[in-house]
Amino acid sequence: MAANEVPSESPGEVRGETRRRASRYVVPVAVAGVAAATIGLVPALAAAGDPDLPEITAAQLIEKIAGSETQTLSGTFKVSTDLGLPALGGLVSGLGGQGGGASTADPAQKLTELVSGTHTLRLAADGPERQRLTLLDGSDEYSLIHNGDDVWAYDSRSNEVFHEKDASAGRTPEKELPATPKELADEVLKAAGDTTSITVDGTARVAGRDAYQLVIKPKQAGSTVASVKIAVDAASGTPLKFTLSSVEGGKPVVDAGFTKVDFARPDASVFAFEAPKGAKVTEGAAEEETSRKLPENFEKEFGEDFGKEFGQGFGDFGQGFGGFGKGLNVLGEGWTAIAKLDTGAPAPGTDEAPKEIRGFLDSFGDEVTGKFGSGTLFKTKLVNALLTDDGKVYVGAVTKDALVEAANSGR
């Protein structure tokens, strides 16, 4: 099939607003297919043989995704993540915890395991009120169940249960979405500008289903993102496969895929849960507890319409951090936007810092120099950060050269 290129934003940005109705543990919930777009984050493995499908433009495919009415499904998928980070053992999962008394079943802690390695998951969804996600790890299982007003999580390894009321139950969206899928697609295309292109590039067989391949690429030089590829179910418009590739090449940063998917309604018993005998049950914090809630003005500070203001949203987000040092500024736009924070203090890796801290930073970063002076570069395959010795921080999904150039400019 010939490629049809249309400048546009990532479909993930369009889906962001739809996901806001889910609970704070919306990662597995949204993945379940409540919002068709989010299912794109947990894609599919393609089988051999590309199907012969009618040609479709990028605009039409975005409209098809937006118009998907998928509410029920079940299936199995694999998620592989490779950020290019060194093995940190239990450090990453420990960052998600809440101290020594935290439950090992708390999703805030457990789901951080998905940021690295390869994982197999089982999924079931029945509309916005019922979803179940099970993470398989050898003979152990971790299940997260949303059923009506309740969110349950169970860790078989520790025999611990975490329970919390769904903070989003009964709420309505804070803002209205476009009335029709076409309006939503038109809004995406109109707001894209010249930074992003979308290509409908061929077809694929994904989990036994015919799918179109949607390829999203930055048009700007200097981004660490090479492409985002999404396989979209030709019949339902449900995204089935998601692959995020880095300009560094090698394994994709994210490559997740359904190995099996069924759009029939799962049995109600799938979402029923009762704590096993002898299990330790931890009740989650009350909804009013501020330590887990986002500020009421978070959405405004981050950008009132993230899908419409991809790059500019980072600028609004930065304004919300004006109290840090001399404030956070955003340099550039789109895929090559760089956030700059001036802490006003020497970096912790300088000679003024304890040798233990300097040694830790040196083990994870590389020394760089330029007109700005010297500093330490911390790299992943997606996001890089430059910490200068005079306390300035430059962060973005951009290359090392782009960060050094930004630092050299003195802006």
Quickly describe the structure.
Helices cover 21% and strands 33% of the residues. The protein has 11 helices and 20 strands.
What descriptors fit this protein?
21% helix; outer membrane lipoprotein receptor (LolB), chain A; 2 domains; 411 residues; 11 helices; disordered N terminus; alpha+beta; TATA-Binding Protein; globular; 6-stranded antiparallel beta sheet; single chain
Shape: globular
Uncertain runs: 1-48, 88-100, 286-326
Named CATH architecture of the largest domain:
Clam
Mean pLDDT, to the nearest integer, reads 74
- Give the C-level CATH assignment of the largest domain: Mainly Beta
What is the CATH homologous superfamily assignment of the largest domain? Lipoprotein localisation LolA/LolB/LppX
- In CATH terms, what is the fold-level topology of the largest domain? outer membrane lipoprotein receptor (LolB), chain A
Cα distance, first to last residue?
Answer: 45 Å
The residue fraction in helices comes out at 10-25%
Number of helices: 11
Radius of gyration: 22 Å
SS-based class = alpha+beta
How would you describe this structure to a colleague?
- With 411 residues, the protein is α+β, with helices and mostly antiparallel strands.
- It has 2 domains: 289 residues, outer membrane lipoprotein receptor (LolB), chain A; 112 residues, TATA-Binding Protein, CATH 3.30.310.
- Helix content is 21%, strand content 33%.
- The protein has 11 helices and 20 strands.
- Strands 1, 2, 3, 4, 5, 6, 7, 8, 9, 10, 11, 12, 13 and 14 form a 14-stranded mixed beta sheet that branches.
- Strand 9 and strand 10 form a beta hairpin.
- The longest helix is centred in the middle third of the chain and has 11 residues.
- It starts with a strand and ends with a helix.
